[in-house]
């Protein structure tokens, strides 16, 4: 990931490999807060602050297509959704909790 992202400039360039793209776009999605509604201008400002290759539209479309952000049909509001990675992590924690409960009960 270091070759695509640095903490000063953010995303340096858009990778070619799908797996690298997923890592980069997940990182970018971490810059948005759950429960907050964003205007398109706010989304663009956040993306602009975290990349240096001047393609805000590409990154915004990727966030939407990977379902890391959702938006109203008219594009007036955006909000953060759960990522697949986060959903898997939550599921893993639920399974571990269930196993602990099952051991405690038996």
Describe it for me?
By secondary structure, this protein is mainly alpha-helical. It has one domain (5-81): Arc Repressor Mutant, subunit A (Orthogonal Bundle), CATH 1.10.10. The chain is 51% helix and 11% strand. It contains four helices and five strands. It has a three-stranded antiparallel sheet with strand order 3-5-4. It has a two-stranded antiparallel ribbon with strand order 1-2. The radius of gyration is 17 Å and the shape is globular. The model has no long low-confidence stretch (mean pLDDT 85).
Arrangement of strands in the largest sheet? 3-5-4
Q: What is the CATH level 1 assignment?
A: Mainly Alpha
The assigned structural class equals mainly alpha
**Main pleated sheet:** 3 strands, antiparallel
Outline the low-pLDDT stretches. none
Helices, by number, come to 4
* Share of helical residues: 40-55%
> In CATH terms, what is the architecture?
Orthogonal Bundle
Q: Name the average pLDDT.
A: 85
Give a brief outline of the structure:
The protein has 106 residues and is mainly alpha-helical. The chain contains four helices and five strands.
Topology (elements, then pairings):
Blueprint: E1 5-6, E2 10-11, H1 18-29, E3 37-38, H2 40-49, H3 56-65, E4 69-71, E5 78-80, H4 84-105
Antiparallel strand pairs: 1-2, 3-5, 4-5
Features of this protein?
three-stranded antiparallel sheet; 106 residues; mainly alpha; two-stranded antiparallel ribbon; 51% helix; Arc Repressor Mutant, subunit A; 11% strand
């Amino acid at each position: 990931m270091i070759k695509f992202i640095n903490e000063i400039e953010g995303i340096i360039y858009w990778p070619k490999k799908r797996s690298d793209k997923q890592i980069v776009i997940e990182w970018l999605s971490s810059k948005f807060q759950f429960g907050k509604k964003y205007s398109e201008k706010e989304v663009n400002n956040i993306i602009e602050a975290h990349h240096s290759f001047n393609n805000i539209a590409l990154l915004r479309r990727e966030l939407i297509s990977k379902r890391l952000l959702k938006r109203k049909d008219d594009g007036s509001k955006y909000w953060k959704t759960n990522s697949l990675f986060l959903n898997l992590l939550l599921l893993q924690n639920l399974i571990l909790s269930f196993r602990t409960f099952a051991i405690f009960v038996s």
